[in-house]
Amino acid sequence: MSDPSLPVPAPTIPAPTVHVLIVAAGRGARFGGPLPKQYCALAGQPVLRRTVGAFLAHPAVSGIRVMIHPDDRALYDAAVGDLGLPEPVHGGATRQASVLNGLEALAPAQPDLVLIHDAARPLISTGAIDRLIASLERHVAAIAAVPVRDTVKRAEGTTIADTVDRTHLWRAQTPQAFRYADILAAHRAAAGQDLTDDAAVAERAGHQVELVMGDEDNFKITTAEDLARAEQSVLARLGDVRVGQGFDVHALVPGDHCWINGIRIPHDKTLLGHSDADVGLHALTDAILGAIGAGDIGQHFPPTDERWRGAASDKFLAHAASLVRAKGGMIAHCDVTVICERPKIGPHRPAMTKRIAEILGMSEDRVSVKATTTEQLGFTGRGEGIAAQAIATVRLPF
Fold first, then answer.
1. Where are the domains of the chain?
2. Residue 156 has pLDDT above 60, yes or no
3. pLDDT class for 397, splitting at 50, 70, 90?
4. According to DSSP H, which parts of 275-360 are helical?
5. Are 240 and 55 in contact (CB under 8 A)?
């Protein structure tokens, strides 16, 4: 029996479940370019991936759903398909309709709280997320915002008509945070309206919305200039610069082609190996693994494992790149040198550069492919094998 004289411990109150909706269904007409801005590269990763990653790293977040344009499924899968997210939700004709679709998709989970965020704001901080969740202990709704600090002018045409008092002016950002049941009801009631953001939907339903201090870095990427600014900010955070090196050798045996740096080159010999024996990609894989202290290619893909017999080496290189992304980092540059007498590498260099860039998801100007001979000296000079060496520069968060 318990002792009635002892204090009864207070019941444990479970933490609220927090889900995040990320709006990525827009087309980005003002941004221009061949891709919607949320799928453009930002310091080596798609903007959407960096946005999703900020919430995946937060311990209070229980789930994430992304709203996408129906035509963007392939882009979505390439950006975040390996992160284990639930199926994306198709967006609607307007942002407001997209959010309602996302809220309805969360109905089976019935989260306590929901944060609604723009995919094009990849620099959201942990502190801002913390402040929003804490605000919902007291309020039905809260938004990240920053006070207006510049002098504000009201214009008529191209001339100043008035100076506006900025004392009570704030610039709204996302995430915008709500108690789930309340914002779902508010969005259902506002369907068909043309409201500017989710806070306006909550206001229309009669809810007070608290302003929570956001961050100046949490700006929305709207133009190419914004993307360049965001890249500088990300690079400033990725201040831990690592360099790794790799070296590989494979023997030449009778055959009709060689795989080198992801390109099939017709030749009267082939490289001998358990996989496709791509000596260049093997060296580069080891360089990337070395830069992040992740061992070598043999540890990740043992030559005794039948799964890798004859495997294309782009799988090995892509795996190394995924480990860098998992650490929140980027591959800044890579340099591969192929050492052989034959086949000649020069005619294939542009294709090799392009293929490596594709595998690593980086621009071609960050990839260097070179070739040299040993002046007919040694095993490479005698045509007995091909060697390759590689260097990779990786940037990681401190």
1. 18-237, 240-396
2. yes
3. confident
4. 279-291, 297-300, 314-326, 349-360
5. no
* 328 — pLDDT class (breaks 50, 70, 90): confident
Q: Degrees (nearest 5) of the Cα angle 176, 20, 14?
A: 100
Q: Is 2 exposed, middle or buried (0-12, 13-18, 19+ CB in 10 A)?
A: exposed
Q: Which CATH number applies to 240-396?
A: 3.30.1330.50
Instruction: Give the whole-angstrom CA distance, residue 309 versus residue 374.
Output: 30
What does pLDDT average to over the chain? Answer: 94
Q: What is the DSSP letter of 301?
A: S
- CA dist., res. 75 & res. 67, Å (int): 13
- Rounded average pLDDT over 200-213: 97
CA-CA distance, 314 to 375, in Å (whole number)?
A: 30
Report how far Cα 89 is from the mean position of its chain's Cα atoms: 19
CATH 1.10.10.10 fits 18-237, yes or no: no
